[in-house]
Specification:
Layout lengths: L24 E4 L3 E3 L11 H13 L6 E4 L7 E5 L1 H9 L4 E6 L5 H4 L8 H13 L4 H8 L3 H8 L7 H6 L9 H5 L4 H14 L4 H9 L19 H43 L2 H10 L1 H11 L3 H5 L3 H5 L3 H4 L1
Parallel strand pairs: 2-4, 3-5
Antiparallel strand pairs: 1-5, 3-4
Length: 321
Amino acid sequence: MKAVSQSSGSAGANPVKSSFLSECVRVPLAQLVPLKTMLPSTKGSPKYQQILASVREVGLIEPPAIIPIPDRPGYFHILDGHLRVEALRELELLDVDCMLAAAEDTYTYNRRVARLGALQEHRMVMRAWERGVSPERIAAALGLGPGSVKSRFKLLTGICKEAVALLANTPCPAAVFPLLRKMNPIRQMEAVELMAGQHNFSAKFVQAILSATPKSERQQEPRARRSHASANSMARLQREIARLKTQTKTAEVGHGPDILKLTIARTYLTSLLANREVTDWLSLNRPDYLKEFRRIGGQHEAGVISQLGDQVSNVPVSRAL
């Protein structure tokens, strides 16, 4: 472990430039300055409570990422890990091991962070259980009840392997799998392909797919659990599907002009960021704004424009503006 005073040493003879030092540094929590303001409601969110429970039970797993503040020696901006740092402060710890950035790259780091999805969490829980960790200990580390952990053991029960493979690296929530379980394997594959094509992995979208699934493509429920929907329920369901179709058509009509407006706005923002005086002022007074502006301006314009296709080419510029 390197001390903070030693963290500015040479990166060595490695020809590949590293964004962070090869070893963590220990920094007092009082010297860490957040780049964004935490809302009062954040501490009550499930995500924060899960991080707090994990740090309390097993300690800090992933060090926060920090970068020195040029005009405040000994102090550092937090690039990633605001909730972890806040949890450590709530637990009344004094310092923390951090990854120290070797260069200012604050506007791209968070885009490289891979968040844990339901399938990754399922594999993590199963591996811990196979190695002898009790469900109670896993529940305490994840901030969940023992019943919730046991339900995660059965997350993939009734889901075909092909659907699981397609969902492996997607932000698919756990609430989707009980809905998929009500479909037969072929319909599961069709549903997953629809989700991937629309890049919509929400439970509401899967519920709509399930509602449109014919009875012949659903899993047969046990006779004791089988229920018959009333005429009112079917009418409400049909109205909901019609409303979703109307919203989809409305979004399709305005998609081209909206993307064109965003592209023009992004081009203007990129020209502003090319002005050194503007970026210097933002860096000193609004570093969080500068990070977001750079993130927006860093997108490849060709990749954005390619999404327009023929739809944008047929939209008059006067109408779009």
